[in-house]
Design brief:
This protein is mainly beta and about 170 residues long. Helices cover about 10% and strands about 40% of the residues. It has three helices and 13 strands.
Length: about 170
């Protein structure tokens, strides 16, 4: 079967998709009480939370495995991973699916979808001095003064520490 999708150029320094100053579509999500922007190019699908196969002796943020059309996705509770505390799942909670080279499959639980946005509608702001998590690539402010963090799911899937889900 031939791959008919055109690959987008990659900026070798940052490992992010280069769009030649074109408007960038991002997905606004709520994780815990914080707002995040996730590049649409990194999200292959958004699904409701399915029945999960629990995996014992794993990190608190790893909540199990989901079989989505024959692919096993490791599912991460981003609220626990990024914020340190779990937010209850509701009917608005969703899983964002992402894969790295069709070899590593990850699902990421978000508490609420806030819609597709254009990154050019946000102003870049200086990052807070506190150490931020792997995957946080930038900070923005919207027209109402709310702070948003840009999150790269693919950066998480590339991170060796993130991939080590076993308890030590």
């Amino acid at each position: 079967m031939m791959d008919t999708q055109k690959e987008q150029p990659i900026d070798n320094q940052s490992n992010h998709v280069s769009n030649n100053n074109a408007p960038t579509a991002v997905l606004g999500v709520l994780i815990g009480e914080d707002r995040y922007l996730i590049p649409m190019t990194e999200v292959s699908e958004v699904i409701p939370i399915p029945k999960l196969a629990r995996v014992p002796l794993t990190q608190s943020w790893f909540i199990g495995l989901a079989n989505v059309r024959g692919n096993l996705y490791g599912i991460t509770d981003l609220s626990v991973y990024l914020c340190g505390n779990s937010a209850p799942f509701t009917l608005k909670s969703r899983i964002l699916l992402a894969s790295l080279n069709n070899k590593i499959f990850g699902g990421f639980v978000v508490n609420n979808m806030l819609g597709i946005r254009n990154l050019s509608d946000f102003n870049s702001v200086k990052a807070p001095k506190k150490k931020h998590s792997i995957g946080i690539t930038d900070h923005y402010e919207d027209s109402e003064g709310r702070v948003w963090q840009q999150l790269s799911l693919l950066d998480l899937l590339r991170d060796e520490k993130f991939l080590q889900i076993a308890l030590k």
